[in-house]
Amino acid sequence: MAEPQLSVRSARARDIAHRLQRRENCSIADIVVRALEAYEMQHTGREPAGDFYRRVSAETGLDFDLSDKIREDRQPHQGPEL
Fold first, then answer.
1. For residue 66, is pLDDT > 90?
2. 3 assigned to some structural domain
3. Are 47 and 41 in contact (CB under 8 A)?
4. How many domains in the chain?
5. Domain span at 16
6. Which residues lie below 8 Å from residue 65, measured CB to CB, with a gap of 6+?
7. How far apart are CA 9 and CA 6, in angstroms?
């Protein structure tokens, strides 16, 4: 099955995509996806998860490692009764 294609009719966009492709050593599809994701985050008010957790930690004064909390409450399963 053929991959879906995105057609851009801008010579400037094509030139930028090819320049980034050579510099980043990845496919043009990856360049376009990353650019669109960055645009979405910028224009929809979403922030990356790491930034969100740092901000919440600074605002609440709580600083803990979620993985440690999960490990504390983890109970080993005894296995099936035979």
1. no
2. no
3. yes
4. 1
5. 11-73
6. none
7. 10
Q: Which amino acid is at 75?
A: Q
Instruction: Answer yes or no: is 29 within a domain.
Output: yes
Mean pLDDT confidence for 51-69: 79
On the question of pLDDT at 69 being above 90, the answer is no
- 19 within domain boundaries: yes
Mean pLDDT of 6-24: 88
- Of 7-11, 28-32, 34-38, 66-70, the range with the lowest mean pLDDT is 66-70
Residue of 57, 52, 20 whose CA lies nearest to 35:
20
Residue 18, in any domain of the structure: yes
Closest CA to 53 of 67, 39, 43, 42: 67
Task: Enter the tokens of residue 67.
Answer: 């993985």
Alpha carbons within 13 A on the beta-carbon side of 29: 4
Whether pTM exceeds 0.85: no
Please, how many CA atoms are within 13 Å of residue 26, restricted to the half-sphere of its CB?
Answer: 8
